[in-house]
């Protein structure tokens, strides 16, 4: 599917604000691909589509994920919005005709990361956090700089701040984010 078609479809599925965010991730990911020698088109495609399933109402995310036979963790069952990565990869495959597994994985894991991420996965994980439309989060200036100089350091920084934030706001911790952090912090 070409970009024009993807955009037309995507616009009907997510809010205007989220669409703007998706464009932000697309271009930020492209810039990072230039810096780190990743395939620019893959980065753009994954960035553009990473939140394609986020527009579904929370309950429907869980229902759809079940219907599609996706693996659902206990944490995701309690927080179905976390499923938009997995579900997004599924939609990218079957509604946007993406067959590139690297792109699908980058979409799938963009929310929590995972241990031993590919370069493309890291790029989308980071670009999602730093794209210019994002509101200012703690250490944002520093994190944005790291994104273009030391991507692993940047990944750890984002994970750490996310976990700190989660532990302040939620009683129950995202297991995958913690697992990713443990992997990268000892690397
Ligand atoms: Fe997302
Ligand atoms: Fe996003």
Plain-language structure description:
The protein is 68% helix and 0% strand. It contains eleven helices and no strands. It has helices at 3-11, 16-36, 40-49, 58-67, 74-78, 84-95, 101-108, 119-130, 140-149, 151-169, 175-185. It is globular. It starts with a helix and ends with a helix. It binds fe (iii) ion (2 copies). One fe (iii) ion binds at residues 21, 25, 50-51, 128.
Task: Name a few traits of the molecule.
single chain; 187 residues; mainly alpha; 11 helices; 68% helix; globular; binds fe (iii) ion
Largest sheet: none
Determine the oligomeric state from the structure.
single chain
Helix content: 55-70%
Number of helices: 11
Shape: globular
Supply the helix-strand structural class: mainly alpha
Mean pLDDT: 95
> What's the order of the H and E elements?
HHHHHHHHHHH
| First and last CA, distance | 38 Å
Strand content: under 5%
Q: Which stretches are low in confidence, meaning pLDDT under 50 for 5 or more residues running? A: none
Bound molecules: fe (iii) ion
DSSP E strands, number: 0
Radius of gyration: 15 Å
Layout of helices and strands, plus pairs?
Elements lengths: L2 H9 L4 H21 L3 H10 L8 H10 L6 H5 L5 H12 L5 H8 L10 H12 L9 H10 L1 H19 L5 H11 L2
Helix pairs in contact: 2-3, 2-8, 3-7, 3-8, 6-7, 7-8, 8-9, 8-10, 9-10, 10-11
The protein binds fe (iii) ion (FE) (2 copies).
